[in-house]
Amino acid sequence: MSNSKGQILSNKLEIPKSDELKHPMEGYLREERFPHIWCSTCGIGTVLTGFITGLQKSGLDREKVAVVSGIGCSGRAAGYLRLDSFHSTHGRAIPFATGLALGNPELKVVVISGDGDIAAIGGNHFIHAARRNMNLTVICINNFNYAMTGGQAGPTTPEEANASTAPFGCYEYPFNLPFLAESSGAIYVARWTSLHIRRVSNSISEALLKPGFSFIEVIAPCPTLYARRNRLGSGLDLMKFYHDSAIIDHNADTRDIDIGYQDRITIGKFVDKDKPTFLENKDNFLKKKLGDKFIQYTGQNWE
Amino acid sequence: MKADPIGVATGSHYIDGDHACAEGAIAAGCRFLAGYPITPSTEVAERVAERFPFVGGQFIQMEDELASMAAVSGAVWGGAKSMTVTSGPGFSLMMENLGLATMMEVPCVLVNVQRGGPSTGLPTLTGQADMMQARWGSHGDYELISICPNSPQECFDLTIEAFNLSEKWRVPVMFMMDECVGHMIEKVVIPEADKIEITPREFYKGDKEKYRPFRFDGKGIAPMVKAGDGYFIHITGLTHDERGYPVINEQAQDKNVRHLVDKILKNEDKIRIIEEDQIDGADVVVVSYGITSRVALKAVELARKKGIKVGIMRLITVWPFPESRIRELAPKVKAFVVPEINLGQICLEVERCAQGKAKTTLVSHAGGWVHDPADILKAIEEGVK
Ligand SMILES: Cc1ncc(C[n+]2csc(CCOP(=O)(O)OP(=O)(O)O)c2C)c(N)n1
Ligand code: SF4
Ligand SMILES: [Mg+2]
């Protein structure tokens, strides 16, 4: 057991005095907002933990990191983080984040949101932000359904899976998000499950340090809706399922990593390359074209 | 504060309203524009795209208007003075994120160069039929400010005013042009930078623990901070308290929503910009706005030649509606005549505020062109009867 400074308190499992009992993420969470809204064993909290550790590992100045969420269970992530955090509208986290990143280019802006938010209603923004190589890290918590609204089918619901608006099973083809991200121009693409928490946080820290559009999909359990409707058991059962069916393959071709219903899940870091960002391109290009007359935006001058 | 000279194109120009609006925005210090092309507003974005590289501005053509409006709010929280520009269909697409901006109390300017609707309607021809949408377009109760210029010169001057009002009241301001004003070329005089008054954003600089991004006590508007300043703000579209934290109950809703409405309605007299002429002793008052106010002028001139006592009330700020002024005038006049390029929008407000004490006559026009002054004259003549 260790305290917040990482010092070992005791080798035995001794309960520290209450004033020493500190949440390991202390300072990064808005504890005054607890209890949070998430169900027990929901995977979203795990991803949030992964994000905070990833951020800590990255060594970035947290004052210069902002988080934007859309709407959904996953979209509540921003609200619990003690960072500059914004809870926007359903599907518009990415364009809101785009404005934020352009309005204050000093920031590293992170989007944390759900599969419906990012790939359905916000799908167009997703591909365009990737195409522009906007300096954003997008973390999509994929629980295979629209959880917040009661477990409806969405663009990542696997074929055959049951959802409240697919009561006899889903008969649409789902998106393969890493493939979508890569083909749209993302410079960093990874997929993990919430079981692979260390890899999630390492991947987030890597992505945060890369200028440009990075995308991390995290498959996470929604025990209350998706798992219950499909009789997949508890959150723990889903963790076991991830353990048994997730295959790490960093070299996988993103075209081949569709997710079938209760089928293998290919995880790994699939893309990691460098490319000038939207702003680097813009500023360099205009400097070249306009010479000394070009004035770069480095933040609004309020003087 | 005074305008930054770098953005002020001092001198006389022959430009259309769209270009003048762009110059007004740049002079006002706007340094972020996110937009999506649509006739007849595109020229505003085009001119900004051409000018921004020389003034240190950030222009981005987004993938649609939903994105544009969302990006504006993001940019404002990043510290930028921001705007977007659109027309009819794009205006409709912006509505949800306009609601977000209203809820987050984002100072920004949304330019709508109105064209004929509904749907794709008359892409290249004028209309004034988005006036109610400017007021009610997003869901829920809220209030904001709408301004209607009637000339390219006003497109310049009032765009600056729009930014100033948005900063003062922390509210999106709708700059409701129309195709006629947008495409009309006239002389526009841009003064020297030190003659242009700019309302700066109020930034909080105090104790980090004590900062509250919202203020609901009716005693003022909370100052802002920007993301990156170390205040660790949380800002949401959910009903929230003064810390910005979501609170989902009836009491919080009451405080939050009443604040959004009251900060505008209770200050209507401070926000109001209207022009009046010969109202005292008038039998008929013509209430108009935007391009129609210029056509109405002709009708009033003809009526006065016929000896009719006609007053003019031109709404420059249409929202918040100058309710108390209409109430005051209603018992003193026989009729209000309201010409507008729609089938009856602002006339409903006039009629409501007149409370039956004066007749209200709509002179409607479905769009595509301006009124024939003769139609307005006819309504004036009937009004005195
Ligand atoms: C414009 C709009 N349409 C619909 C909704 C209702 N809605 C809220 S969250 C949500 C889906 C959320 O799904 P997802 O993004 O996957 O997040 P999850 O709850 O699964 O984490 C929907 C449809 C909304 N808030 N706004
Ligand atoms: S409904 Fe599902 S996604 Fe939402 S909090 Fe509960 S378990 Fe998590
Ligand atoms: Mg989901």
Characterize the structure shown.
The complex is a heterodimer of chains A (303) and B (385). Chain A contains nine helices and eight strands. In chain A, helix 3 (115-121) crosses helix 4 (123-132) and helix 4 (123-132) packs across helix 5 (177-184). Chain A has one domain: Rossmann fold (3-Layer(aba) Sandwich), CATH 3.40.50.970. Chain A is globular, with a radius of gyration of 20 Å. Chain A is of the alpha/beta class. In chain A, strands 2-1-3-4-6-5-8-7 form an eight-stranded mixed sheet, sandwiched between helices. In chain B, helix 10 links the parallel strand 12 and strand 13. Chain B has helices at 17-28, 42-55, 65-77, 88-103, 131-136, 152-169, 179-183, 250-265, 268-271, 291-305, 323-329, 346-354, 373-384; strands at residues 11-16, 32-35, 58-61, 82-86, 108-116, 122-126, 145-147, 172-178, 185-190, 234-236, 274-277, 284-288, 310-315, 317-319, 335-340, 359-364. In chain B, strands 2, 3, 4, 5, 6, 7, 8 and 14 form an eight-stranded mixed sheet that branches. Chain B has 385 residues and is an alpha/beta fold. The model of chain B has no long low-confidence stretch (mean pLDDT 98). The interface between A and B is large, with 47 and 55 residues. Bound molecules: thiamine diphosphate, iron/sulfur cluster (SF4) and magnesium ion. Iron/sulfur cluster binds next to helix 7 of chain A.
Key terms:
heterodimer, A: 303 residues, alpha/beta, Rossmann fold, eight-stranded mixed β-sheet, 9 helices, disordered N terminus, B: 385 residues, five-stranded mixed β-sheet, globular, binds thiamine diphosphate, binds iron/sulfur cluster, binds magnesium ion
